[in-house]
């Protein structure tokens, strides 16, 4: 081989390797900033297969990167109190704790709000979807985006609107705010669990087991860098969380990212998988069924196709855009990902040891701005549903015969209907007495009284 060929080849390999380098920020469960999921099925999304066109799509999105909630922030403060009142004798990888200060400069303004990295993720998502689906929106026409009624979620929708519709967003986009707590909404919202009195998100039985397996060896390894024995396993369990939050809040990699080894971070990541799998995921019983009404509403839209007009309960007509975008929270994104079919037949996650080869990985499902997308594709004369989690195509094991791993539309609709039938009615599952279940979905009912409109 000629030497310049070899040089070119080596350059190729080194750039390939560095672009796929293991990145701690992509293994933090729900606590990391957004990244595109790996193409685990080698299906080359998000571009559609060459003979297909996406004529309609629904993106259900978690709010963008954010500042900590009050509870998490008080944990940071107690850790700081501890490390600053210790003799400040940390060494090695823990030396930074001798001078560490929590990174919130304006806690009163920032707590619980979308962060600046969040602004970036959301406007980028807006621009990305406009570029991805150029035929689904004409400039300066009306566009609707939905948000669960919660400040950072509404703000996420508003930021998205600017990236999507551009400088005239505040004139042409309306953000429909869905109040999931209004009794009349019942399950007809972006957070149905709010009105399910039997809903419990509790994975502690499993996470406690794993915490006792994976954390003590890390504490033991780090003990020599903490001669005053200040840190506990509880403190250490916050380190990857702080890695994710501090990095996106400051825009600079946090020193907490360098404490755990790659193997230790992977164990932390598994801990996040257990938290979601048993909390409100595939093996959480009732909790995992909470987003079925939203899945039903989305599949109804895809079944009807783009451009259909609907009369509201009081007669107001509404025509959803072919691109439907709605914002909510991590729990809801995980609940939805767990019922769309892509984790059907997934082996159970053992609490005492990591399950290798699993494809249920919370980092790839609900990072900040995590997204479940369902597309209606037309390929020749046939119509298909294709599912993407954070831009990576996932397949439904029992229905993936379509182009690019998609499922024929009618079969997908049947699959969803069967799932809903098996789960039983939401009211019965939740022992709810108020609200009615059979109404039109908030996506099409312009008269739903638990929906209000704000400008982006
Ligand atoms: C800070 O630490 C001291 C002990 O070092 C403790 O007495 C105090 O309650 C702590 N304060 C907070 C807010 O955690
Ligand atoms: C924004 O709206 C104004 C008034 O309708 C229009 O003249 C202008 O071209 C629009 N800007 C863009 C970028 O579409
Ligand atoms: C919607 O309402 C209008 C009159 O208000 C009626 O003409 C039309 O048929 C209705 N469409 C549907 C789909 O019900
Ligand atoms: C369901 O609700 C009824 C009254 O609203 C109550 O008596 C009953 O205990 C509830 N069942 C469960 C399982 O919570």
UniProtKB/TrEMBL annotation:
EC number, as in UniProt: 3.1.3.8
Tell me the disulfide pairings in this chain: 52-379, 243-257, 399-407
A GO term, aspect molecular function: inositol hexakisphosphate 3-phosphatase activity
Per the UniProt entry, the signal peptide is 1-19
Q: What class of enzyme is it?
A: hydrolase
Any one cellular component term from GO for this entry? fungal-type cell wall
| Keyword Hydrolase among UniProt keywords | yes
- UniProt-listed Pfam families: His_Phos_2 (PF00328)
Where are the active-site residues found? 63, 330
Q: What InterPro entries does the database record attribute to this sequence?
A: Acid_Pase_AS, His_Pase_clade-2, His_PPase_superfam, Histidine_acid_Pase_euk
- Name the keywords, alphabetized: Disulfide bond, Glycoprotein, Hydrolase, Signal
Coiled-coil residues are none
Q: Which family does it belong to?
A: Belongs to the histidine acid phosphatase family.
> PANTHER family per the record?
3-PHYTASE, MULTIPLE INOSITOL POLYPHOSPHATE PHOSPHATASE-RELATED
Q: What is this protein called?
A: 3-phytase
